[in-house]
């Protein structure tokens, strides 16, 4: 199952079975250009290429998600930072896979 994010539909999460929820966060660094001409004090711009993407994927089986995240053939090539087991009050078990990088 593919989860498509974004207005354009071009940002797709990795494929995986039994995905419950996907959160994608993109952090972009800014560069202070206050000392350059024609800018006011504290003016910052985004610098292309300086960004970090974080995936948090809640699922029932993390195996397929981890494989898809780390596979260079899917185009993501992310680094898995953690896999957390979650046990709900009803005893249901889910997993949260956190990864950095990728698309």
Offer a concise description of the structure.
The protein has one helix and six strands, in the order E-E-E-E-H-E-E.
What does this structure look like?
This protein is mainly beta and 103 residues long. The chain has one domain. The protein is 9% helix and 50% strand. It is built from 1 helix and 6 strands. A 4-stranded antiparallel sheet has the order 3-4-6-5, covered by helices on one side. A two-stranded antiparallel ribbon has the order 1-2. Strand 1 (4-5) and strand 2 form a beta hairpin. The longest helix is centred in the middle third of the chain and has 9 residues, at 62-70. Residues 1-12 have low confidence and may be disordered.
Strand content: over 45%
Note the main sheet. 4 strands, antiparallel
Coarse morphology: elongated
| Oligomeric state as shown | single chain
Catalogue the unreliable spans: 1-12
| Cα gyration radius (Å) | 18 Å
Q: What is the count of β-strands?
A: 6
